[in-house]
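Retro notes, structure queue

What went well: the backlog is down to a handful. What didn't: a couple of records were mislabeled last round, so from now on we paste the full input next to the output in the thread. Example, using Dehydrogenase from Adhaeribacter aerolatus:
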Amino acid sequence: MKNSVLSRRTFLKAATTGSLAVLAMPTIIPASAFGANDRIRVGVIGFNSRGKDHITGFKKLQNVEVATLCDVDKKVLQEGAKDFEKKYGKKVKMEQDLRRVFDDKNIDAVSIATPNHWHALATIWACQAGKDVYLEKPASHNLFEGRKIIEAADKYNRIVQHGVQLRSSVAIREAIQHLRNGLIGNVYMARGVVFKWRPDIGDQGVSAAPADLNWDLWQGPAEEKPFSKNYVHYNWHWFWNYGNGDIGNQGVHETDLCLWGLDVGLPEVISSTGGKFLWKDCKETPEVLTSTFHYPKQGKMIQFEVRPWMTNKEDGVEIGNFFYGDKGYMVVNGYNDFKTFLGKERTPGPAGNAGGDHFQNFIDAVRARDKKLLHGPIETGHLASGLAHLANISYRLGRSLNFDPVKEQFINDNTANLMLSRPYRAPYIVPNVV
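Corresponding output:
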């Protein structure tokens, strides 16, 4: 066994010399190679939650300036700008409408951390305006949108990074290389688990929108509905009009790793079932969801579990992934940690725990104008988000579905195919880019 397994020392040496293609890291271009005008100026769009991490991530990078903050909630915007000035000792430009950020010729790139239903249109508009994009997961609100983002990035020659930071984790990239090298044998199954604490959110009904919130702009491409405190600012995740449930929230990190580790794309057979068993609140998406994705031609499958409350851990994992082969299995805990267990006796094998910098990877690709340097290119974002979308469609229809992964259409199923996109609300229409 020892002779057939890539040792950690050999692995790290190979990674350092660049001989492992899957781990090929971009050349770090020193800031001194550029003039003062080569500073990359970033606008952060949506920062009430995850966007705060975007600000921190970009601020620590050399020769990168967070130049503009944008949020549809004026109160969030003003408080964020005040905190920014206090923390970094400088003022930052404020915009409530993301279109003004795209119009700004001084902005080179944008990061997007809006609710899911805005991800595609915001990214396409940014590409059309000549901006590169760091896009928070999930890449899209439906499958159609993911393909449109890919087309826009290609048409306008923009760098678009999908914000799943485990793609830049040194440990996870090592783990993927072990899978490719056959450490656990023929890898036939991946499992993703999302066990997050999701409490009862009640039902606050409808009310007038706060004066500081541009409710029309917040809704954007989605079907127009009355304002409710149930949506703003986080629980929109649990409503189909704006979010995709936890498989399309936290779960996209894990669907992405399932696909990466198995080396597959979209599946041919999808089955997803679950429901609301705990709370009588106003959530629309399921609390508990069990999904399977079958790849009959490759002889592989993915299992995915979402649980919201009291539950056991699986091999110590609450959020993570498992890979099963005929010679062992791998456990990925979170974003930066993996372990392997080999043979019938589950002998501990190679393990690792090391992070990475996904924002730096994006900036490196922007500077080099080379999307091949991206660890999380938008194509992978489309697939990872797509897996969640397919599961949700199966759940909502209450049946298994047959899918053509090349045409990205369900087979002889008009009802399901209608759910691959949505009606859009003018003027916030996701365009057919090609």
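Agreed that this is the format going forward. Reviewer comment attached to the example: Residues 378-397 form the longest helix (20 residues).
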